[in-house]
Design goal:
Layout (H helix, E strand, L loop, with lengths): L4 E6 L6 H11 L7 E6 L6 H11 L2 E5 L1 H10 L17 H10 L5 E5 L3 E3 L5 H9 L3 E8 L3 E2 L24 E8 L4 E10 L5 H6 L20 E3 L4 E2 L5 E5 L22 H16 L2 E11 L6 H9 L2 H11 L9 H14 L9 H25 L7
Parallel strand pairs: 1-2, 1-4, 2-3, 6-10, 7-11, 9-13
Antiparallel strand pairs: 4-12, 5-13, 6-8, 9-12, 10-13
């Protein structure tokens, strides 16, 4: 079988995390010939060492720093859209989605952060694929605030993940059972032990100045897999995530960090909101729970993270309400994404701090969809025979 799984790893530090994931696959009998490992990095990193690691592991893959990404955009005739992938930002995972979209052999993207490691008891890639193919009954979680805390099974509502709106806290959790048919699941979000994925404000409230948190999560905190109920939103973190290629139009990783408003760290959060809206419109599901990964976040200044987040905190309280009103009649992921982009561009957000950034995001989503169209047209164009 050719490579049908694109493993996207944004990294400027611990790229050898790939060794752990490849070892996990082999230990569980997963066919590593199906994997193509795409390391998305920067010009100041040792790309030769990254490529040598892939060779040593015997897995297919490629390394793309900033210069290589620019060349890729040029080679695919979409250089005018290179701005979609911000420099030195976690949001550069969007490049992985473009790379997948340009190659029809890729059916699934798996996102892995370089400060994670797989739990050895789980077949990491196999479990994600099983989740994407899931059919049956699963717990469906909602709340009176229309937001689902992915940590709802523990901590009695005292711990909320990065991106969860402050206005939606102190919710009343509601659980039910949902029937899921084969093909309904389009995204599999694995959760994380050790360092929880919190925002800077919550880390400070937990008494930690090193960007981590005093609280730690364990496997027992995630006893049951679940989906978010229809009409409810949840935080989606791309440190441990698998998605089907069909969702790419509605899963742009928003342009964080490299923008004039200084907004950062909401790329996967907002893309998750957009994806959940598309799933609700199109009757699809995001599956959450296992496989778990261990998150070994390196110490860093909590105040640095706060600086990146603070410019978008108010926007995060309102972004989902804009998305929640769009795309009712859409029949495709691109249709939902275009309706969202239209709403962001047309909206008046002048009463919000940095509200113009939402308009900026809408313009970028329009560019994202245009770029995907051009890549698809190039991919499907018939080859021209040489004279």
């Amino acid at each position: 079988m050719s490579q049908d799984i694109c493993v996207v790893v944004p990294t400027i530090r611990e790229y050898d995390c790939v060794r752990s994931y490849v070892a996990n696959a082999r230990e569980h009998g997963f066919d590593t010939d199906r994997l193509f490992v795409l390391l998305v990095t920067e010009d100041f990193c040792d790309t030769d060492a990254m490529a040598a690691m892939l060779d040593d592991l015997g897995v297919a893959g490629a390394v793309y720093d900033g210069t290589a990404r620019e060349a890729w955009f040029e080679a695919h005739g979409v250089a005018e859209y290179a701005h979609l992938v911000p420099a030195a930002s976690h949001a550069q995972t969007s490049f992985g989605l473009l790379y997948l979209w340009a190659d029809p052999d890729f059916e699934v993207a798996v996102f892995v952060d370089d400060d994670t490691r797989p739990h050895p008891e789980f077949d990491f890639f196999g479990r994600h694929l099983d989740n994407l193919g899931f059919s049956g009954s699963v717990e469906a979680v909602g709340s009176d605030e229309r937001w689902v805390n992915v940590l709802y099974q523990s901590y009695d509502g005292e711990l909320y993940p990065r991106g969860y709106p402050y206005a939606a806290m102190d919710e009343t959790v509601e659980t039910d059972t949902a029937g899921v048919e084969a093909g309904d699941v389009v995204a599999s979000q694995g959760l994380w032990t050790n360092v929880p994925d919190l925002d800077a404000v919550r880390i400070l409230m937990d008494g930690d100045l090193q960007g981590q948190a005093q609280t730690r999560t364990a496997a027992d905190d995630f006893e049951r897999d679940f989906v978010a109920a229809r009409g409810n939103y949840l935080t989606v973190c791309s440190m441990n995530l698998a998605v089907k290629r069909e969702v790419v139009p509605a899963f742009y990783q928003f342009p964080m960090d490299d923008n004039e408003w200084g907004v950062g760290r909401f790329d996967d959060i907002w893309s998750g909101v957009a994806l959940k809206r598309a799933c609700d419109v199109l009757d699809r599901r995001i599956y959450n729970g296992r496989p778990l990964c261990r998150h070994d976040k390196a110490p860093r200044s909590t105040f640095d993270d706060l600086t990146d987040e603070v410019h978008g905190l108010e926007l995060n309280e309102h972004f989902w309400t804009v998305v929640d009103d769009v795309g009712d009649d859409a029949e495709t992921y691109a249709g939902v994404a275009r309706a969202m982009a239209d709403a962001l561009v047309a909206g008046d957000f002048s009463d919000l701090n940095n509200g113009a950034f939402l308009t900026h995001c809408g313009e970028y989503v329009h560019d994202w969809l245009d770029c995907l169209d051009e890549l698809a047209a190039d991919r499907e164009a018939p080859a021209v025979a040489d004279d």
